[in-house]
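Lecture 7 notes. Example A: sequence first, then its C-alpha cells.
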Amino acid sequence: MELTSVYRVKEWIINQIKEGKLAHGEKLPSNLAIARDLKVKTDDVYDGVDELITEQVLTNNLEEGVSVKSLHPFFYPLGELVSISEMITNQGYQAGTEFISLDEKPATSLDAKYLTLPEKTMVTIIERIRTANQFPVVYCLDKVPTSELTCYQYQTNNQSIINAIEQNSKRKISYAETEIEAISYEPHISDILNASPHEGLMLLKLIHYDNEHNPVFYSFNYFKSSLVKFKTVRNRL
C-alpha cells in the first residue's frame, strides 16, 4: 500500500519528536521548510499538522505558531483517592502549602446542601495553594463541619485534611464523588496560580463520604491544565 504524503508528514514529525530533534515546547519548522525536506505539497503539510493538532501531538498558539505540545509534569488518577501531595512527590518534586485563609464560619445554604447539615452550622474553611518546588500547581478550597475538624486541630496536625479528619473525628473517608469542569479563566484563581488568561484550569469538585455514605467534607480543586494530566478507567457495563 502506497503511503500518502499526509501520512509521511505526520510520521516525520512524530519521529523528529521521538529522536529528540524536536523538543516538547519547541516551535515547528515552517510548512514550506517541511514540504521542501519531504518533497511534498505545502497543502499536505498543512493537513498533516492539523491532524496532529487534533491528536494533541502539536499545539497551535495564534501568537507564536505551531509547536510540539509540552509534557504535563504531573499525573492525577481520577479513579483513586490520591492526595495532591502524593501527586507532586511521586514526580520527584517537593510538595508545599501556602495558606490563604483558615477560618470557621456558619454554613451557607449551599454548604448545608453538600454536607447535609442544618443551615448556619459552623464549618471550617481552608483556602490554600499546593506547590511543587515552591511553584503553584493547585488552588484548594475545602469545607469541613467544625464538629469534624477545627482550625486548631488542622493546624496542629500539619498533615492532609483526610488524615486530620480521620484522626480527630474517627470517621474514615471511603470514597469521593467527583465532578470535572473546564474553566477558561477565573481572575482570582488564575492570578493566584500565575496562570495567563490564555491558560485553562481544570476544576475538580469533590464530596468525600464515609463508609456509611454520609458526606464528610467537600472541596474545590483548581488545577493548572498545562501542568496536570488526568486519567481514569471506564468499564463497559
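Example B, a different protein, same format:
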Amino acid sequence: MMEMQAARMVQAADSLLKLVSELKQTAIFSGFASLNDHVEQRTTEFNQQGERTDRMLARIGEEAAASLKELEFFFLV
C-alpha cells in the first residue's frame, strides 16, 4: 500500500515537473514573440524615418542646386 502511494507521488511529481518545463518553454517563446513584434515595429519606424530623411535630403539638394544657379547668374552678370 505504501509502495503504491509512493509510486503515485513519484508520478505526480514527474507530471508536475513536465508541466513546469512546458510552462517555462511557453513563457520563453511568448517573450521571443513579443520581442519580435517590438523589433518589427521599430524596424518599420526606422524605415519610415529613413524615407523622410531621404526626401528631406533630396529637397535640400534641389534647393542647393537652385541657389548655385542663382549665384552663377549673379557672377556672370
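Note on Example B: The CA atoms of residues 24 and 69 lie 67 Å apart. Residues 40-76 form one domain.
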